[in-house]
Amino acid sequence: MAKVASLAVVCIAAMLIAIVASHAEAVVTCGTVATDLSPCLDYVRMGGAIPAMCCNGIRSLFSAASTTQDRQTVCNCMKSAAGAISGVNLNLAAALPNKCGVNIPYKISPSIDCAKVQ
User: Residue 43 belongs to what H/E stretch?
Assistant: First the structure.
């Protein structure tokens, strides 16, 4: 009976670890990207001064993107948004992370292959 109880505890623990690990893998969603980057919309459309909330959102987003999967999600969401939002100046958008003190290892562009983002 003790062996069965021990086996049940081990199985339950393994299931909990698997559930927690699956949720830990994908922290960033396109909703996260949209929320964090929405303060940047006026800037990437018209230029001018970069709002502090924009840089805060960029720092928060890239800080949260701690895995390759998260970074690829951010890349894909930004790529989709850049093509879907009218009036976006891609040069301003591409330079924005660096201007906010965030170094990303890829250039934001409509032609980027997000599967190659590490």
Answer: helix 41-46
Q: What are the E-state strand segments in 14-86?
A: none
Phi, psi of 45 (to 5 degrees): -90, -40
The pLDDT value recorded for residue 1 is 53
| CB-based contacts of 116, cutoff 8 Å, min separation 6 | 106
Q: Which residues contact 40 (CB under 8 A, 6 or more apart)?
A: 50, 51, 54, 57, 58, 93, 96
Any idea what DSSP says for residue 113? -
| Neighbouring C-beta atoms of residue 110, cutoff 10 Å | 11
Domains defined along the chain, listed by start: 27-102+109-116 (1.10.110.10)
Across all residues in the chain, what is the average pLDDT? 79
Contact 40, 48 (CB under 8 A): no
Whole-prediction pTM? 0.72
CA pair distance 25, 106, nearest whole angstrom: 21
Distance (Å, rounded) from C-alpha 5 to C-alpha 68? 38
